[in-house]
Amino acid sequence: MNEPRLRVAPLAPVLALLSCVGLALGTTACRQSKAAHMEIPLPPPGQVWLSPGEVQMAKIELATVAEQDVDDVLVTGGTVTLEDTLTGHVFAPVSGRIVKIDAELGARVKKGDPLASIESPDIGSAVSDVHKAEASLIAAQHDLQRKKDLFEQRASSEADVETAEDTYRTAKAEIQRARQKQFLLHIGNVDAVTQMYTLTSPVDGEVLMRNINPGIEVQGQYSGGATQELFTIGEVGTVWVIGDVYEVDLARMHVGAHAAVTVLSLPDKVFDGKVDWVAGMLDPNTRTAKIRCTFENPGGELRPQMYATVRVTVDERRALAIPRAAVQRLGDYKLTFVEIGEADGHVAFERLPVDVDERASSPWLEVKHGLEAGQKVVTAGATALAQRL
After folding, report:
1. What angle do CA 65, 70, 76 make, to 5 degrees?
2. Which of 152, 170, 317, 332 has a C-alpha 20 to 30 A away from that of 123?
3. Domains and CATH numbers, the chain
4. What is the pLDDT of residues 42-72, one digit of tens each?
């Protein structure tokens, strides 16, 4: 008995049919994709549209254009110094040997307190010079009087009288010189018997520096040799910081301006003071002018000869400003991205030219032209926006 046979359709027609179906489906999908793509309009030139997710991925941050305290701060270097009206620099007026030290480093002294004793032959010499000059003056005075009496009796010539007068004037000048030298040596601090000279403090304050030890020889100020400072007496409760300002910034520098100082030893601490003097002339070599700022220093943390960074606030005012980070550069042009709203479910940003005052060293830059209050500028993520233009 013959069984029925299955009839198999030829393979080629089937493949052709499937190919036609796939082609039709692909054409439909392609048309749908093109249609979907054509539904999203292209942003105008200079604008970038991002979806909310893209905004988050680009880490875009915004700031509102508004009036801010624009502090134009000039930054310069400075040196901490003592206030000179409260500081005494002590030198030895006589040459000799240090035999005693009365004031140790860090000690508090009053004006007139003894600092050190110097054994000096200059003392005996100064006292002797005065006595010799006094004796010479008396002898010259007596000789002049005798010559005048003899001249009146016609027993002496006029030339003898004139010579006696010259000798008298010379003796008078010599005694003035000797007494002046004795005065310069502060005769009140001198023991003529022991030839001991006592150095005293010229001001109230702390012994900040001592440059001598017992037994060393010191050179006197009036002996013609090289001298050195033996003691520095001063107050550190109030100090000065001396800085330099360039000529271009002088017009904005005024007495009374706020000054802030930081030093390397205390980088996180800011000392507040004010400018109390601006030099009336420039240094011919550096073309800078000196400024002096005064700071209260009750803890003594600002020490003389420290280097400091000085920030002086000038032209403090309120003005329409944007953060410094919002400004981008394209060649010589300054630009910023501004959020302008929504477009087809996307956040729209536009790149606009802006004119700002970049001379200020504060984080806020004054807007001169290009933006209005209330606009939102991009302060972070502007690079991602620029890449899409």
Report:
1. 140
2. 170
3. 47-70+318-386 (2.40.420.20), 74-84+236-314 (2.40.30.170), 92-120+195-234 (2.40.50.100), 121-188 (1.10.287.470)
4. 888 889 999 999 999 999 999 999 998 877 7
